[in-house]
Amino acid sequence: MSANTLTPARPGSASSLWTVRGVLVLDALVTGGNGLVYLAFAGPVGDLLGVGRSILLDLGVFLTVYALGVGALAARRRPPRLAVQAVIDLNAVWVVLSLVAMAAWLEPTTAGAVWIPVQAAVVALFAALQFTALRRRDGRAEGRAEGRVDRRT
Hints:
- The chain has five helices and no strands.
- The chain is an all-alpha fold.
């Protein structure tokens, strides 16, 4: 009998949202969706946010490629710690650059002045969830190496 793919995963399972892979998948889906919207609707979204069309096209390409990379990392059975840490670091850089760009370079509309910090907060949340999941995973691996048993995996 095959497993029902619509059944929610238990919190400690490999496909759970709260694992490294789960948070990477969520990041890839949201980031990829954002990138595709920027690519497909750069003009109208740029007008709405007060950000130039060419900037949104460039961001759309970057976000889509980044999302593919994060998705590929999430597809690995056990994403390497260094690669996950790189995603966390890049997400943190994105947050800072988003806020600096809004304050120093961009002249966003009211919608843009709301959207830019909101999307930065979402990315910051991804980084925090990825960091927490990575620490939890590494802690469980360390416990197994010391002979402690973790019944959640």
